[in-house]
Amino acid sequence: MAEERELQCHCGAVHITLTLPNGIEGVGRCSCSMCSRKYAAYAKIKKDNLHVFEGIDVLKQYTFHTHTSKHHFCSICGIHTHHQSRQSPDYYIFNLACVKGLRIEDYKGANYFNGRQHPNDTKSYGLSS
To answer: Is pTM beyond 0.85 here?
Structure first.
């Protein structure tokens, strides 16, 4: 049976339901210019399994570089809740620190995805090595 979790921003304006058929999977961090500045640990979820049930009107979107990945954040408190995966467009990547009942320090050893040299780029982009 699928596990359901709730994710919310810091101020509580944005509430998201996560349906996790296999629990939390695809945990990691990213070294791209955007993610490295957030220093958050993430997990992946099929797009159909993430549902914003409150606060869709306060969510804002930010894109950069190829504009493929769409980063969503609360316009009130500024917390990044999730983004569309650039590498796997059928997935969202959600911020583990926003999931109710999780301890972010339990994910301090999450492996890094090399977003600085994204496999979809022909040249390096972002922070210097």
So the answer is: no
Using alpha carbons, select from 100, 10, 95 the residue that is nearest to residue 58. 10
Interval 89-101: pLDDT, tens:
899 999 999 999 9
Contacts of 31 (CB under 8 A, 6+ apart): 112, 113, 114, 115, 116, 126, 127
Q: For residue 87, what pLDDT is reported?
A: 78
Q: Which amino acid is at 55?
A: G
Phi-psi region of 126 (alpha: psi -120 to 50; beta: other; left: phi over 0): left
SS3 readout for 60-119: EEECCCCCCCCEEEECCCCCEEEEECCCCCCEEEEEHHHECCCCHHHHCCCCEECCCCCC
Q: Highest mean pLDDT range out of 9-23, 28-42, 64-78?
A: 9-23
Which tokens in the block code for residue 89? 């467009």
Phi-psi region of 125 (alpha: psi -120 to 50; beta: other; left: phi over 0): beta
* Predicted pLDDT at 125: 43
